[in-house]
């Protein structure tokens, strides 16, 4: 028996009680001072969760930041892989690509490099996993690499093409999934995107744990379909068969609660059918294997309204053996069924859809899927032990060659591990000596029930030797020398060492000085009591000091800003009026002209016949006095021809009001929505483009104000129109001023209106000028399409997600408001839509500044003028023409 050492043991009762008391006090203190911060993070997390489909993991391999695209949160892969290099594809190729395909992560080092996915639903659930690859000449070699793709220890696919994706439906036996790229010496492996989607566990069930997607076709479709049309984000490719009759309906397909397949409504509304009942729909598919098992899923919906009869079908799958089933279709109700079989000896799989016996209606088919069954039960590490080793890797932050399955393939087993020679391999030994390990021994080692040897010597491990080591029944060799353990060794371990059933190495002279290695350990109460008291004091004082410094810094910034604003307000004290004057000029609040977040808006007239709008703060308002003061202060110190002018304000105890210039033509949303878009407004395309330039008074807030101002609630209902249809921005209650000119973002509570808020705010919590640019882009889309920010329907869709497919296909005219078609000029419309799209790009770095936006809008206006020479010429009003000032000095607040 080889164990030597002496040390000190904690007094078992007094010190434990003291430590618990200090720990409880620290926890209570931390909770008290961080509750508001925690609530803020929880709010952001809830918003992010609501914006992201449940059960989705979407990774843009090679991206530097997270972003939203088509309603899906795409994350950088930094948290999913430990190796590799981020590289952009060739600029000649990336111009028209989706964001996910503009970068790759390549793996020039190591034979196996793996992504680790941890779906929230865990093991024994069915997932769709899709890996996409676009070579894009990222390495400037013009040679497409060839490499293998693995799921765990199982070969998934050999990637030998330069643009495509591979997809499988997979049921893992562990709570994590590894997707590995194997270097086969035919080029450097790379990957563009990796996506996981949780499916309903009642569908796509087979004896094998994986179905590899071969084909998924939408018969009669015109373009690809995926999320949000397909809630599982399956990709449906169109299949147009000119020799068949196509059938289309505009009626909605009733999905119902029992349809777990959730086939897209758009796909089911198109179908192909034969001429008559004597003909069959026949489909041939060539495979490379005559022994593989294939599963074909057929999807039907009756889209013809039949009187007194139903369409009855017979479905046959022909190969080495035949499979048959029958189906009866109900009007506008989906039906999915599946057959499986193997191809014939020539490698051909065939299915046919025909009229069932006695039916006089021709066969019909809406879509189908073909999958190849793949046995993903090859040799692998026992799942519970594989999970345990992943825990060890995570705790110790080990990289090495610890990728994929710990034991398979055997030539790539993790360094330092010895595994048993069986199809379900056990971990027999771990040697992590001299590995610069820190922290405590991971608890997951307790699940390695077959381990015989554990060597953790020559590291910086701390804490006590854990009790669970006693419960490893086959452990014969344990080496913990040259670490920094404290406390005492479990009695049962020492007894096993004395009995000779365990070789226990704990310390040589001078090592592990605070570890007691005998059955009876003395203790130094005074020493450890002092240490614990000091630790408790530091645990309490440190958060107080940090919290105080943060509060002090923020308070100084607020005081400096408040002082600057108050100095400007002193120059315009004449704007403040009494509540009695408010009642006089509004005829005792007689005429209500609107209602918003502050409360009601009333009509009034000043003594000089000036018409005004009076916004009166309601006691039940959703917005409070802080927003009231923010709007009053901002509008008092800024002035621009395209910002609504503040004429005066009232701030008396409970009576608070803002007095604006009157805008008789209401807000822009009213003119855009439905039939309310007025004839005058739509009469000439010039009005449409000029309005967009006028709205760009936002540029003044960003670049003309020092420090800059972020509006934070830019939308069409906050854009008002005067008697000349001139657009002005209003509602500054949520606006914020930067602390100084060099600041780039504001960290504040979430604000704004759903549909207009930059999706990136949910990720970072920071508002920037580019957040306003995103909102402005949504407004531009509303102007050109006449659609609202959120288009209502069976599935609500954001206006950008709705318009983007048409733009990518070059069908811009399909999104232009029909009321503008006669006056809209195609070149300027194209540039206008291009500008709107650039404002709403997923990342802030890709979006233009407001100054660039205004320049491009001026170009649009000039293009229109070239086509419409009779229209008045445009004067370019830049931000330099405006500055902080006051509006007049003569008081006009008296009754008319």
UniProtKB/TrEMBL annotation:
Please name the PROSITE patterns in this protein's record: PROTEIN_KINASE_ATP (PS00107), PROTEIN_KINASE_DOM (PS50011), PROTEIN_KINASE_ST (PS00108)
Q: Where does ATP bind?
A: 615
The record's annotation in Gene3D superfamilies points to: Phosphorylase Kinase, domain 1, Ribonuclease Inhibitor, Transferase(Phosphotransferase) domain 1
Coarse class of the primary localization is membrane
Q: From the record, give the transmembrane residue ranges.
A: 528-552
**Domain Protein kinase stretches:** 587-861
Q: How does it sit in the membrane?
A: Single-pass membrane protein
Q: In the UniProt record, does the keyword DNA repair occur?
A: no
Q: What is its EC number?
A: 2.7.11.1
As for subcellular location, the record says: Membrane
Residues in the signal sequence: none
* UniProt entry keywords in alphabetical sequence: ATP-binding, Kinase, Leucine-rich repeat, Membrane, Nucleotide-binding, Receptor, Repeat, Serine/threonine-protein kinase, Signal, Transferase, Transmembrane, Transmembrane helix
Give the catalytic activity: L-seryl-[protein] + ATP = O-phospho-L-seryl-[protein] + ADP + H(+); L-threonyl-[protein] + ATP = O-phospho-L-threonyl-[protein] + ADP + H(+)
GO CC annotation, single: membrane
- Broad EC category: transferase
Q: Which GO terms describe its molecular function?
A: ATP binding; protein serine/threonine kinase activity
- Please give the SUPFAM superfamilies that the UniProt record associates with this protein: L domain-like (SSF52058), Protein kinase-like (PK-like) (SSF56112)
Q: Cross-referenced PANTHER family, in alphabetical order?
A: OS07G0107800 PROTEIN-RELATED (PTHR45631), PROTEIN KINASE DOMAIN-CONTAINING PROTEIN (PTHR45631:SF212)
Q: What is this protein called?
A: non-specific serine/threonine protein kinase
